[in-house]
Amino acid sequence: MNRKLLVFVLLLLVAATLISCGGDKAPAVDVGATVSAVQKSADAALADAKSAAQAAQKEAAAAKEEAAAAVAQAKKEADAAVAAAKKEAEEAIAAAEKAAEEAKAAQPEEPEALLTDEEMEQGKQIFFNHCAGCHGVLRKGATGKNITPEGLAERGRDQDFIKTIITNGFGGMPAWGNLGILNADEVDLMSRFVLSPVPEPPAWLFEDIKNSWTLKVPVDERPTKPQGSGDWENYFGVILRDVGKVAIVDGDTKEMLNVVNTGFATHILRSSKDGRYFYVIGRDGKLSLIDLWMEKPDVVAETRTCLDARSVDSSKFEGFEGKYAVVGCYWPSAMVVVDGQTLEPIKMVSTQGYDRSQGDFIRENRVAAIVSSHLSPEWIVNVKEAGQIWVVDYSNLEKEGRPLGIKMLDTERYLHDGGWDSTKRYFLEAANTSKTVVVLDTKEGEYVATIPVGDKPHPGRGANWNHPEYGPVWATGHIKDNKIAIIGTDPEGHPDQAWKVVKMLETPSMGNLFIKTHENSPWLIADFTVAPVPEMNRTLCAWDKNDLEKEPKCWEVEGAEELGARVVHQEFNKAGTEFWVSLWGKIDTPTAIVVYDATTLEEIDRIVGDWVITPTGKFNVYNTANDLY
Ligand code: DHE
Question: What global pTM score does this model have?
Answer without folding.
Answer: 0.82
